[in-house]
Design goal:
Layout (H helix, E strand, L loop, with lengths): L7 H6 L2 H21 L7 H8 L4 H11 L2 H13 L12 H37 L4 E6 L2 E7 H26 L1 E2 L13 H10 L3 E2 L10 H27 L7 E2 L19 H22 L10 H30 L1 E2 L1 H9 L7 H10 L4 H18 L3 H6 L2 H4 L4 H6 L3 H4 L3 H8 L3
Parallel strand pairs: 3-4
Antiparallel strand pairs: 1-2, 5-6
Helix pairs in contact: 2-3, 2-6, 2-8, 4-5, 6-7, 6-11, 7-9, 7-19, 9-10, 9-11, 10-11, 13-14
Length: 431
């Protein structure tokens, strides 16, 4: 059974109530900072922290009049703190709240994504160890190449997810930037020490320089990193999807009791989980593209980016969280058809050892072109007519003059190709 996505933690970051509480915390911290600078009377910050309340329905009611969410929020909170409302939003502009809050939301989302990525890594590592020596054919251009192991494939995916974790950590660091610098970033009616205090309390870095907004190249980098992680998920999903083709069928998605693969064809077992993940990666790339378009705002600010970010912030982070959750389930429940792997290894009658034969001939004194031509003459015959490549090589009079039967037989040793699997595993899993 495919588990439903039930991750309220990620969704809760993006609720209206959560956003308003971030705004309120920023407002209170600004009052605290202004109190330290003796611009707000003592005791105001403590009273506001104790009395201020967020009432979402009331904010929505006021916003119908103000047509401005921050103005509605400030008015609603002001209603709950009486005369101390005079010190609310003093010298701040809307983007001081919006951008600093967005940084907090994206940082929190990145932390959850890192945790989910580590879950995927955990299951990939386990499966890699289990299938470390499960031989299968490697493919280039979709055509049989030389033997690999399924464990190596899992290890490669693990390493991709390790890089994904690093990318998400960098994205979290990049986006952890706030600003409390007023309407055009000059601290015209503020003091840089207010920004320093608020950002320090929120564990953010103050923007080195801002206009009315934090520069959007930071956000573009964040969403681009999410898209790259999505690309890694797509690589894994696409491989599983490809290896579930009927003609290959080496891997297969779990198929639950009572599950139906098609409304019309009862025999169907389709790779729907992988296909879902491929589609989700496309969406993540589209969000990255939208974030890149947000970089070039007019003058010190316009709001063309705002409507975009209100969508792609929650959508991209929730979607990637969902994709990682689904990928973990898929890897954990993946069905492995070892008999098909063996059949596919044998399918070309030993042609997959052609390079080893060529190298052995070179070691006996032939030039590479001479060895290539001699080997290819035999591979083409087997490719077109079938049969055993080893027998074909052993019966070639020119090769008989150069290699003994024992030397030829040694070239068809699968373990020769897999002798460094332990070395690769040690390097990949050294962390």
């Amino acid at each position: 059974m495919i588990p439903r996505y039930t991750r309220p933690e990620m969704a809760s970051i993006w609720t209206d109530e959560s956003r308003y509480h971030f705004w309120l915390e920023i407002e209170i911290l600004a009052i605290e900072a202004l109190t330290r600078l003796k611009r707000v009377p003592p005791g105001v910050a403590a009273r506001v922290r104790k009395q201020a309340q967020v009432n979402v329905p009331r904010i929505e009611e006021l916003e119908k009049i103000t047509r401005h969410d921050v103005a509605a929020f400030v008015s609603q909170v002001g209603e709950t703190i009486g005369k101390d409302a005079a010190w609310l939003h003093l010298g701040l502009t809307s983007s001081d709240l919006l951008d600093t809050t967005l940084a907090l939301q994206l940082r929190a989302a990145a932390s959850l994504l890192i945790r989910e990525t580590e879950g995927v890594m955990e299951v990939l590592k386990q499966r890699a160890q289990e299938e470390k020596n499960t031989a299968m054919i490697g493919r280039t251009h979709g055509v049989h190449a030389e033997p690999i192991t399924l464990g190596l494939k899992f290890a490669s995916w693990y390493d991709e997810m390790r890089r994904a974790r690093e990318r998400l950590a960098r994205a979290r660091e990049v986006i952890s930037v706030g600003k409390i610098s007023g309407v055009v970033g000059t601290y015209g009616n503020l003091d840089p020490r207010v920004e320093e205090y608020v950002c320090r309390k929120l564990h953010l870095q103050p923007a080195r320089i801002a206009t009315q907004v934090v520069p959007r190249d930071l956000h573009a980098e964040f969403f681009s990193q999410l898209a790259i992680v999505g690309g890694g998920i797509e690589r894994i999903a696409g491989e599983i999807r490809g290896l579930q083709r009927t003609e290959i069928l080496e891997l297969e998605e779990p198929f639950g009791k009572g599950q139906k693969g098609s409304s019309a064809m009862p025999h169907k077992r389709n790779p729907i989980l992988s296909e879902n993940l491929v589609g989700q990666a496309r969406l993540l790339r589209s969000y990255a593209q939208a974030s890149l378009e947000n970089i070039a705002l007019w003058h010190e600010r316009d709001i063309s980016h705002s409507s975009v970010e209100r969508l792609i912030g929650p959508d991209a982070t929730i979607l990637l969280d969902f994709a990682l959750n689904r990928l973990r389930f898929l890897i954990d429940e993946l069905v492995i058809h070892r008999d098909r792997m063996q059949a596919n290894l044998d399918r070309l009658g030993g042609l997959i050892y052609s390079e080893t034969i060529m190298i052995r001939l070179q070691q006996k004194g032939l030039t590479r072109d001479q060895a290539y031509a001699l080997v290819q003459r035999n591979t083409q015959a087997v490719w077109e007519k079938g049969g055993s490549y080893q027998k074909r090589i052993q019966s070639d009079p020119e090769i008989q003059k150069i290699l003994t039967k024992k030397e030829i037989s040694e070239c068809f040793d699968r373990e020769h190709h897999l002798r460094f699997v332990n070395f690769i595993f040690k390097r990949v899993f050294s962390d």
